[in-house]
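[job 4471] stage=fold_predict status=RUNNING
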Amino acid sequence: MANADTVAIVSAVATAVAASVAVLYPVVTSWAGRRNRPNVHIDRERIHDFSENAGNGRYSIRLPIANKPGRKAAKDVEVYLEELTKEGAEANTPGKFVPMRLKWCHGDSPTCPSIPESSYRLLDLAEVNIERVRKGIPRSWEICGEVRPLSSPYQDSGVYTLKLSISADDMPTRNEIVRISILNNPEPNDPVAKVEVITA
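[job 4471] inference complete, writing structure tokens
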């Protein structure tokens, strides 16, 4: 009788464990999968490293787009410009356009096939006409978008806020806010533009 009771208890425990595993396994695997998802963002530590004189009188403003360590490779990464607003006394939204995809360096494509974990790829954000900026001539820069605004693609010097959205397979869309300053008639040794991330 004791043996029968022991077998019954063991059987009941085994059944309970199996049921618990069946219930918890999807929860645990789903949680682990979410933790392992790509996490693509603007790399703030490198944001000042890649904007440079690109030749032919052009200054390229570039953003390093990175994937966090320990995450799956981000596939088919795209960055959209959602809004472009000029700050200050002349605050306005230059040009009317639907959200546009920005282009990646080294390929001129709006889609980056892959960003492995702990890696980054460079995104072309804008190009500045150096001569026009240094001489204080209006319409000195433009966004490196897949399509252009319906009005003139070139914008005047000033401070602009750009709302970007970053998307990739198996990752929630991430919003980032960037501020770029296009200087008006800067000193010869000063940069013609500055960029910073202001996302909270």
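[job 4471] summary: The longest helix spans residues 2-35.
[job 4471] exit 0
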